[in-house]
Amino acid sequence: MPIDRTGYKKRKITIDEEQLAKLASFHCTYKEMGEFFGCSPEFLHNNFERVIKQAKSETRRKLRNAQLELAIDKKNATMLIWLRKQMLGQQDSKTVKVDGGTTNTIKIEFVGNSPKTLGDDSNSIIDVTPEILETVEDSKETVK
To answer: What is the dihedral of CA 33, 39, 41, 47, to 10 degrees?
Structure first.
């Protein structure tokens, strides 16, 4: 057996690319795949990066297709909401302007309930007194 500069004996490692691609498609880490084949993560990265990236990319593509099919073809509301937030950057929040001498802008985040709980239309008015604004400012740390 050849010996490398660190004094360790080098052994010949045979990697089945099909098996490696299957592990990569499950999004195993380089460390996990290295443990499976009995080699270092660096060895896999240096010699099989193309195979691993291609398999992981294919899985992401399949997952994205499945999500879109679930949302669009099967009209899954949860997936539609999640995808609109991810792909379109939409949020479940409103900005409310309060006028009382000075204009304050607060952002209201809707968690678990839709904005319809505030009223039937998207332009519902909320009365906010300066005392409520102070309470909101004081409780910011508690909410986070």
So the answer is: -100
Contact between 141 and 126 (Cβ < 8 Å) = no
Residue 115 has pLDDT above 90, yes or no: no
Residue 50 — very low, low, confident or very high, per pLDDT cuts 50/70/90? very high
Residue 116 sits at the vertex; the CA angle it makes with 111 and 119, to the nearest 5 degrees, is 125
Tell me which of 30 and 134 has the higher pLDDT.
30
The pLDDT value given to residue 120: 47
Q: Which residues contact 140 (CB under 8 A, 6 or more apart)?
A: none
- The structure tokens 């010949």 sit at 12
The 3-state secondary structure of 38-90, one letter per residue: CCCHHHHHHHHHHHHHHHHHHHHHHHHHHHHHHHHHCCCHHHHHHHHHHHHCC
Distances (CA, A) of 23 to 16, 40, 50, 111: 11, 15, 14, 37
Domain ranges of the chain: 17-86, 93-143
Beta strands per DSSP E along 86-135: 93-100, 102-109
Tell me the two tokens of residue 57. 């990319």
- Phi and psi, residue 116, nearest 5°: -60, -15
